């Protein structure tokens, strides 16, 4: 709860993506202890047209017609765009789950305007679960917005464990390290939910079957998407973010200063975390995976349909 007793307002910046889709389900669930004030799409797992379409179709499927969905950055700040990773997220990015796409008047590139509007109304928790391009652009175009961002709770990085794209880099950071550097350099409180914890939270077949067998519209859709998710580890990376917002007690971390390696080398896109009591990033390093999985399933199955 925020100080005045109202629910924290949250914007999720995503690139759906199967695990993004599960994260949106958790955030849209009636059990969520925060207000979802917007969803913004960014290029990452797939090009922007696809992630924007998926974000809109997911929010419509979840019945969240009141939550605005806006398109953000279509390409990284400096590096070449990364190719779509259909081999992990399926031909349409949702593990092959086909959803109706609602007509939408949302404009391309309107994500920054939307975030600024929400920030003008009071403190916001910004939750990027894709590359950090839109957030970096926001901070560059309107640096004063930093004072309205209560904190950034992001999925990305690998602090004390290997990367998942290269030996040292995690996908969301590697896909736009220059943007990540802007965000990590900003004077804003951050919680980094990286591979250190997310690789420990896998979706095993029994857990997926249970979602399906509940004969619940959201659960069946989640199971369909997860069966088309070929990440190897089956890690529920992005859902850790909305779970953390409600249950930080499932996690533990170390306060660090984090810098991003943007040099063309084998460490391109590495998130370098140095333990530092004055650092403005809490790097999560420990997690209770069973508790997180149980929370995700309970949230999904809490919806009325
Ligand atoms: C991150 O990369 C993407 O493929 C996932 O959606 C997640 O946000 C994990 O490295
Ligand atoms: Ca993602």
Give the SSE layout.
Blueprint: E1 9-14, H1 18-28, E2 35-41, H2 48-61, E3 69-71, H3 86-89, H4 111-120, E4 124-128, H5 133-141, E5 149-155, H6 171-174, H7 177-185, E6 190-193, H8 195-198, H9 205-213, H10 217-227, H11 240-246, E7 251-260, E8 271-275, E9 281-287, H12 289-301
Parallel strand pairs: 1-2, 1-4, 2-3, 4-5, 5-6, 6-9
Antiparallel strand pairs: 7-8, 7-9
Helix pairs in contact: 1-2, 1-10, 1-11, 1-12, 4-5, 5-7, 9-10
Bound molecules: beta-D-ribofuranose and calcium ion (CA).
Question: What brief labels describe this structure?
Answer:
305 residues; nine-stranded mixed sheet; binds calcium ion
Question: Number of DSSP strands?
Answer: 9
Bound molecules: beta-D-ribofuranose, calcium ion
Structural class: alpha/beta
Can you tell me the CATH superfamily? Ribonucleoside hydrolase-like
Low-confidence stretches: none
CATH-scheme architecture: Alpha-Beta Complex
Measured as a percent range, the helix fraction is 25-40%
CATH hierarchy, class: Alpha Beta
Radius of gyration: 17 Å
Could you give a short account of the major beta sheet?
9 strands, mixed
